[in-house]
Amino acid sequence: MIIGVPKEADAGETRAAMIPANATRLLALGATVQIEMGAMGGSGFPDDAFTSAGVRFIEGRQKLLESSDIVLRVRKPSVEEVAWMKAGAIQISFLDPFKETELVAKLAASRISAFSLEMLPRITRAQKMDALTSQANLAGYVAVILGASHSSKIFPMMMTAAGTISPGRVFVIGAGVAGLQAIATAKRLGARVDAFDTRPVVEEQVRSLGARFVKIDIGEIGQTKEGYAKPLSEEQLQKQREGMKKVCAESDVVITTALVFGRRAPVIVTKEMVAAMKPGSVIVDLAIESGGNVEGGELGKVVERNGVKIVGLVNLPGQVPVHASQVYSTNLTNFIEEFWDKEQKRFVLKPEDEIVQGCLVTHAGEICNPKLKPKS
Prior knowledge:
Elements: E1 2-5, H1 20-28, E2 32-36, H2 47-53, E3 56-58, H3 61-67, E4 70-72, H4 79-82, E5 90-93, H5 101-109, E6 113-116, H6 131-150, E7 158-160, E8 163-165, E9 169-173, H7 177-188, E10 192-196, H8 203-208, E11 212-213, H9 234-250, E12 253-256, H10 271-275, E13 282-285, E14 302-305, E15 308-311, H11 321-338, E16 340-341, E17 346-347, H12 354-359, E18 360-363, E19 366-367
Parallel strand pairs: 1-2, 1-4, 2-3, 4-5, 5-6, 9-10, 9-12, 10-11, 12-13, 13-15
Antiparallel strand pairs: 6-18, 7-8, 14-15, 16-17, 18-19
Helix pairs in contact: 1-11, 6-7, 6-11
């Protein structure tokens, strides 16, 4: 089978879907690996590192897609280029399928077997393939670095001849993968860290990282079987905002990480909460690409509201593309190895497998995922 890696079409995408070490693993399975010229800039490796591993480079995107049995990407393909892919080909990437209804329909009509990595089930066997988690982990780290770089204060406490500098205060909203990494990174930099999550079950994890868990009574709430926080009612959101307003006002950096897959991100920090914060404070909104958690934030920009900077930069894992490419490429390679038949030397799609059932979006000319099937 031929595994193809096209160049990422998004102008701001710095990550790559392959690194030489993982190309070697795929070649050892008996696959052929081909990459579009210019696609590997973000991987941190020069082209000759790939050619030395046995990869061949293809000039021309259409030529690569027409000849590939499996296509690996970071971002979703365009609707137009789906027509270049061969019927029966396998597409593996982030797809954002709930928003990309036209793309999903086109993939089905073109008989492409498309896997959406966002929908990978959260089971033990799938952890090594969990690209959403690996990228969120890096996003949490980058969020703290951005917060520190835009802050008018330092994070660590310092004892100086001119007096003592108090530690900076960081408030992390959401203790999922990104939030926990943000807590850990802020603590390493010496900040005093507070954190809040709607799921009381994560309090122990927050405290184990040295942060204070902020308790706000918003009524009954829990998490989905995948481990995500359940959506809040508007009344619960209002109680949450009231409880967080004081903590935000005392904080130098606030990091918001609240995302609900397939839905617009909830507004967590209102304009009133921003106005109550100290001039020179910073808010980093990790949910900006899904609508944003912060009122007044702007997609792809750093804006100032009442003296408070709101960082709405996109693709935070892409700020550290070498390591983001490394872990993402490894997730993809683990995915392929899981379903690779060594005797046949090919990827075998198993419709009855729990992982396949969770993240296979289109197959055999149909939208096969029940969450995405059009309602009759």
